[in-house]
Amino acid sequence: MEKYIEPSRELEVAGEYDVIVAGSGPAGLSAAVTAGRMGMKVLLLEWANSVGGISTSGMMSHWTGTVDSPLYREILARMADRNEGEGHGRIVPQIDPENLKAVYLEMLSQAHVELLLYTFVCGVEMDENRVRGVITESKSGRRVFRAKVFVDGTGDGDVAAFAGVEYYKGRESDGRMQPCTLMFKVAGVDLDRAVLLGSFESTYQTEKGELQALAKAHIPYPAGHLLVYRSTLPGIVTCNMTNCTDIDGTKAEDLTRAEIVCRSQMPAIVRYLREFVPGFESCYIISAASLMGVRETRHFRGLYTLNEEDILTARRFDDLVVQGAHFNFDVHNLTGAGLDSTGVQHKWSQPKGYTIPYRSLVPEKIDSLLLSGRNISGTHIAHSNYRVMPICVGIGAAAGAAAALAVKQGVEPRDVSASDIRREIF
Q1: Structural element, H or E, at residue 34
Q2: CA neighbor of 158 nearest in space, from 7, 326, 286, 23
Q3: pTM for the complete prediction?
Q4: Is the N or C terminus of the chain more exposed, i.e. has fewer CB atoms within 10 Å?
């Protein structure tokens, strides 16, 4: 392949902070808010045009799973105050993305977090094994922002990858990653009659046949399942039904293909809903997400790798910084529609919440950096559980508190005490 050598140039150091957080999804936003509330000068960087990541731009239907986190409960309460329709004034899991954006912006403002949108992190400035700055690209040009501690809340772990943190992608045996989904909403649904199947293991028999089997028969491969969720607004349902396999969410070419494939599936999905699913006879698309739902990419090597046995046995770690995390092994089929053979949803048998150790947030060899969200150190199967948004909020709160404590104490994040973190966030 032909090479081009880019001329070297001096980059402006555009700002210096106590803590810089990359990525404003539930994990990154929670880290930024927590650090800001602890008195840190915080910069939150986001490449999209709004905050919230998959919870807003990704048009996520609802908060799945749960976590024992005051910050998560606060987000739900703030949502209740802003929600329209049947969700107003009540704590509900359903998400109105536009109202949630307003909630997030209010929280960031009140925590005095500086926000910079439309800004990609495209590299790092290193001082041996320590991250000193992040290099960004935007309409403002190529610039450097420096901080004492960095939190990677990008989902894919872009900062950690640039910094040289060791990782692998996807399933340990073959590198395959969970499929991508582009969420969309339909209106015109008769909710008094609507059949809303919310898991792959849910089935419903109609005169025309069983709905999951009909989806597999009438929706183009690799889609072919029914997953629909009530919204906060009358007659509107969110669909988690597009599907694109063999996608590496760290590659622009693959993300482009996923957009094309998922959008091409939507007309057939709507035809299926109208013909086979009670209550959807007059439904029509009103909006689709502006962010592809990427479930899995890089798994980084931290001081401890969380595994499925830790979750199944509800292991309580001495250095826990997330508690009451509860979900299932939500492994979408890596080669087609539906649930993967390794996944467990409504048949989940572990009723207790589990904990996540601080060591899983700390890269093994790189300093001044913390992992936050689905990019923490964990196995492919464990990741299918802790990747969901409430648990990512809990992880983010822990990462933000740890970053602030590292700055206050003048130590590396790996030397912060988990007990000190717990005092700040529980």
Answers
A1: helix 26-37
A2: 23
A3: 0.97
A4: N
- Do residues 177 and 295 make contact, with C-beta atoms less than 8 angstroms apart? yes
CB 384, CB 331: distance < 8 Å: yes
What class is the 13-172+296-425 domain?
A: alpha beta
- Domain regions of the chain by residue span: 13-172+296-425, 184-288
Cα angle 87-93-98, degrees, rounded to a multiple of 5: 65
Three-state DSSP at 104 gives: helix
CA–CA dist 162, 300 (Å, integer): 12
Q: How far is Cα 248 from Cα 254, in angstroms, rounded to an integer? A: 6
Tell me if 247 sits within 8 A of 258, measured CB to CB.
yes
User: Is 318 buried (19+), middle (13-18) or exposed (0-12) by CB count in 10 A?
Assistant: exposed
- Each residue's pLDDT tens digit in the chain (426 positions)? 899 999 999 999 999 999 999 999 999 999 999 999 999 999 999 999 999 999 999 999 999 999 999 999 999 999 998 888 776 788 999 999 999 999 999 999 999 999 999 999 999 999 999 999 999 999 999 999 999 999 999 999 999 999 999 999 999 999 999 999 999 999 999 999 999 999 999 999 999 999 999 999 999 999 999 999 999 999 999 999 999 999 999 999 999 999 999 999 999 999 999 999 999 999 999 999 999 999 999 999 999 999 999 999 999 999 999 999 999 999 999 999 999 989 998 888 888 899 999 999 999 999 999 999 999 999 999 999 999 999 999 999 999 999 999 999 999 999 999 999 999 999
Strands (E), 359-404: 369-371
Structure tokens at 254: 């693959």
In eight-state DSSP terms, residue 125 is E
Q: In the beta sheet, which residues pair with residue 369?
A: 150
What Å distances lie between residue 373 and 193, 388, 393, CA to CA? 37, 9, 7
d(CA 424, CA 175): 37
- Rounded distance between C-alpha atoms, residue 355 and residue 67, angstroms: 9
